[in-house]
What does this fold into?
Amino acid sequence: MILAISGIDGAGKTTQINELLKHFSQKNKRAVRLWSRGGYTPLYNMLKGVLRIFLGRKLPKAGKTEKREQMLSSGPISKIWLSIAIIDLMLYYGVYMRVLHLLLGTVVIADRYLIDTYIDFRINFRSIQFFKWTLWKVLVAVTPKPDHSFLLFIPLDEAQKRADEKNEPYPDSDEIRKLRYRYYRKLAKRMNKIDCLQSIETVSGQLIKIIESK
It folds into this structure.
């Protein structure tokens, strides 16, 4: 079984995934959390680490820095970065996730999935229509379809409040948060939308009920 958990930062993805892991553990089912973000998978991070060893200061530090934003604002560099990120996700979803799910029989709980990366790319690379690329279409084709996709949903003001409480190191600006929120609302019809202003127990109960209904 593959479960996709999506939503804006602060919606409670980590909390609910932990509840699901406990639920499957109690049923003696092996389950793993698989976090992903285009350009930030373990494999891609390892590649960037190796490049930093050889290129040193020529590469910007990790995180949102002015040097990094300047590099990614270049058309050719942006397209190269996107292409590598997409190929990396083909391996991550198309190979690694399938091995966990099909060969090992593991319940895979995807903390963020393809739809979240699509939103990230649309926000960060607004002038590039990557979704028309053959590479992206191949990625969509090889990515396993989740048995259930969930959108954990909270209002914008609550997202801001929770971000402040968590003291995020690289929080979205108000503009980006609003844009991200609009994308999730637009794509919500493709997923099971869960109101996460409810208690943790109520939300986890709704998730489990939907999962076990199949």
Observations:
- The chain has a mean pLDDT of 86.
- The chain has one domain: 2-41+87-212.
